[in-house]
DNA sequence: GCCAACGTTGGC
DNA sequence: GCCAACGTTGGC
């Protein structure tokens, strides 16, 4: 079992939206970066745990957790001409992009903000806070997950 | 809105 | 295969 961090712009899809999706969970579509795609397609397993991060917003922060409920399958938005994520080079026969399903697990009592993480030495190695880091799906260590989950749950 | 950092594209 | 131009991400 492994740990990951997913970014989402809350204006597009927030932790509340994920919670509202309920037990069905939601299809995580629209990943259009090859490195993130490879993690998604090759490494994410059912039961893997996810830190849910709000990006491009007033207070960037990890706001809750989720769990992977379905491994990779072709991203439906890639072959949907109506979707902003449509990619003509991705076909049903040879999909280029993939999705997984995730399900809401918790919303933090206290969001763990980016600025806090930058100032917290035990989290100094996090990929998220490295200079120039932009990956929208990235691995997290068990230690990082434990620290952040504790902070978020307990405030 | 600015801009640094990074990824992708395409001509050569 | 190089690299300039362009597009995107995302904090500030």
Automatic annotation (TrEMBL):
InterPro entries: 5hmC_binding, EVE_domain, PUA-like_sf, THYN1-like_EVE. This is EVE domain-containing protein. Coiled coil: none annotated. Pfam families: EVE. It comes from Shewanella avicenniae. SUPFAM superfamilies: PUA domain-like. Residues 2-150 form the EVE domain. The lineage of its organism: Bacteria, Pseudomonadati, Pseudomonadota, Gammaproteobacteria, Alteromonadales. CDD domains: EVE. It comes from the Bacteria.
